[in-house]
Amino acid sequence: MLGVANRRSIAWAIAKRLADDGAQLAFTYQGDRIEGNVRELADSVSSPLVTACDVRSDEEIARVFGEVSETFGGQLDVLVHSVAFAAAEDLEGRFTDTPRERFWMALDVSAYSLVACARAAEPLMEAAGGGSIVTMTYLGGERAVPHYNVMGVAKATLDSSVRYLAWDLGQKNIRINAVSAGPVRTLAARSIAGFTTMESIFEERAPLHRPIDAADVLTGQAMADVGTIAILQHRAVTEAQVLNEQLARALNSRVIIEQAKGVLAERAGLTMEEAFTRLRHHARNQNLLLADVAGSLVDGTLSATALAT
Ligand code: NAD
Q1: Per residue in 66-93, pLDDT tens?
Q2: Are 74 and 166 members of one domain?
Q3: Which residues pair with 79 in a beta bridge?
Q4: Which among 25, 38, 16, 27 is positioned nearest to 187, based on CA atoms?
Q5: What is the CATH number of the domain that holds 296?
Q6: 0.85 cut: is pTM over it?
Q7: Are residues 275 and 200 part of one domain?
Q8: Which atom of ligand 1 lies closest to the CA of 189?
Q9: Which domain holds residue 66?
Q10: How far apart are CA 159 and CA 94, in angstroms?
């Protein structure tokens, strides 16, 4: 679990639910300031590992996944990436004024970190026979939301990274989804200027006319999981249909070839084997499919004498 800061964190709601369902969880925290909070929360779900991780550091990521591997016998089923950061001064005013350094910092922490963590998790999930990675996104990556600014650009990068990671990792039975939450009052959310206005607009316009909480985000994850399962099942059904059609076609041509062998053997006084050789010879010479030649012979459009040579 990356991204628990306190009990309001979306990652904590997810952690609690996973722990209730029997998962064993490891937690990371960024900075000494929140270490105490995270340790206390982690203890309440009997976590075997709580360790520091600043996602801007490749060394720290490598160390954390090494510790995870040691703790969980080289395997990992789920990775929750619930991490984002942009300087408070870039979450107000104009996006146009974002300086280069802070632009890259927001993208590094909020988007690239997913790529780095997914890469580190890959061998552990592969060892577990597959896994699931979940990250948190927001509508501000698709549309310009006042004050969301550079974080919107980071979320667009995150969303696109999810698609490319899904393509790579899906082959190893590793799923990756981004859940797009509405405004939830957390530490990170408090830095966004006008967050209270966002909340009240959400309450006014959302179908349920109420603010969402971290637990609702879980429902989103459950829906994403159901969606993925549905897609996988659909793919399995489609593959089965294609296979069935191929088998049916192969069987049909086999039957028609057997019939044609019989017809030719009887009309030209040949053994079944000689009849087959003659059919195949004709198909090759005329650059036709064997099944098509057989069909023409059986339906009478091709005579046995035409096959004599
Ligand atoms: P939060 O403040 O509880 O969580 C953000 C976490 O990111 C914190 O735990 C913080 O320690 C961590 N973090 C920041 N910089 C880091 C770094 N360099 N290395 C490691 N960790 C770092 O707030 P939250 O709202 O629970 O945020 C979680 C995710 O949900 C974020 O990606 C956020 O953008 C997303 N989200 C939040 C809302 C909302 O309204 N709260 C809406 C949509 C999406």
Answers
A1: 999 999 999 999 999 999 999 999 999 9
A2: yes
A3: 133
A4: 38
A5: 1.10.10.10
A6: no
A7: no
A8: 41
A9: 10-212
A10: 23
